Amino acid sequence: MRNIKILEVRSEIGAGTRGASLGVDAIKIAALDFMSNLFVNFPSEIVETENRLLYEPVASPYAKRIQGINTMYERVSKAVHDTVKSGLFPLVLAGDHSTAGATIAGLKMAKPKRRLGVVWIDAHADLHSPYTTPSGNMHGMPLAVSLADDNIESQMHTPDPQTVDLWNKLKNLGKIEPKILPEDIVFIALRDFEKEEEAIIRKGNIKVIPVAEIRRKGVENVVRQTFLHLSNCDDIYVSFDVDSLDSSISRGTGTPVSNGLKEREAEDLLASFMQHHKICCFEVAEVNPTLDKENMMAEIAFNILQRSVNILLLN
Fold first, then answer.
1. How many domains does the chain fold into?
2. Which residues of the chain have pLDDT under 70?
3. Which domain holds residue 87?
4. CATH number at residue 208
5. What's the pLDDT tens digit per position in 245-265?
6. Helices 23-33 & 296-314, crossing angle to 10 degrees?
7. Contacts 24+ apart (CB under 8 A), 193-197
8. CA nearest neighbour of 239 among 87, 101, 51
């Protein structure tokens, strides 16, 4: 049985669309509507945000609000590190996906000698850097931070020296760089990425499992395949961005993409992952109730969360 601690990260300074900071509360409201006591049963910690920066002008166009992102990385990585060190399982509820790099940093800082695998369930690769980003939004960069890969071969921009310094600081958080290896990432439901990100996927031979493969082979098979691929890893972190779901159901998120997972597929997938003893952290990100109807996205996220937690408690 895992002893769970919930980390609430209401940060949205890495996103291009406003509202993801309200995602955690939307999930909590869904819990109340379903008369669940999930949020009463476990200790939780609220990580302070830098969301006030949303009202200030953007200084770094190729890494928007990177100063605030640095602060968030320090706070989130510390919260994750301390949770793991106290023998608890971090269940991270995040606003935008940018802070996932900090979750990875915290896991690695808590157990620097252990090899960390990443299951990234997301429509997007999040492998951009300030040198390649099409938008400057840092929720498209957490895996590049974790891999410490600037992807200079695909460079499109020349960021200013301050941005470069802050970016290098992010990569080197905890004085561990890189935090993860390309062969220790598995993308699931990835379907919307740029050629610059594809270059990293090809260069690192990163495993990608598309939605069609899940339907063809079945959930159990895909989960088995994932663990086989990550068999050299000591610990495995699962990050679930709700835009991995099909856009017909994932309206309540900043960047919905068609041809995604059905709700049941996502639920079965995560329930299956959570049965494995190597899973060391689970994160849910990018619920944005301001874009939603009747809190549907948060309700789906909550159902997935509830089932996953029930399984974690059994294992």
1. 1
2. none
3. 4-314
4. 3.40.800.10
5. 999 999 999 999 999 999 999
6. 80
7. 193/124, 193/125, 193/127, 194/128, 194/132, 194/134, 195/154, 196/127, 196/128, 196/132, 196/151, 196/154, 196/156, 197/125, 197/127, 197/128, 197/132
8. 101
